[in-house]
Design goal:
alpha+beta; elongated; 1 helix; 3-stranded antiparallel β-sheet; 68 residues
């Protein structure tokens, strides 16, 4: 799965967010660190969403594919 990320460089390093997943962000000293950290953050974000969906009564979870 691919997600767009946004990197911001500052004096302290890099901050990175995933616009498609509100509130999903991370940081790193280097660009490579920031990208590795956002990958972990995305995995954790999606795992949390899956857990919440399983706990939702009367919900039917489906997936759709978006052709490009």
């Amino acid at each position: 799965m691919r997600y767009k990320i946004v990197l911001h460089q500052s004096e302290e390093g890099y901050s990175v967010s995933c616009p498609g997943l509100p509130g999903c962000w991370s940081q790193g000293v280097t660009e490579a660190d920031a990208i590795e950290n956002i990958q972990d953050a995305i995995r954790e974000y999606l795992a949390t969403v899956d857990d919440l969906l399983r706990e939702t009564p009367n919900a039917e979870v489906r997936e759709v594919e978006i052709p490009l």
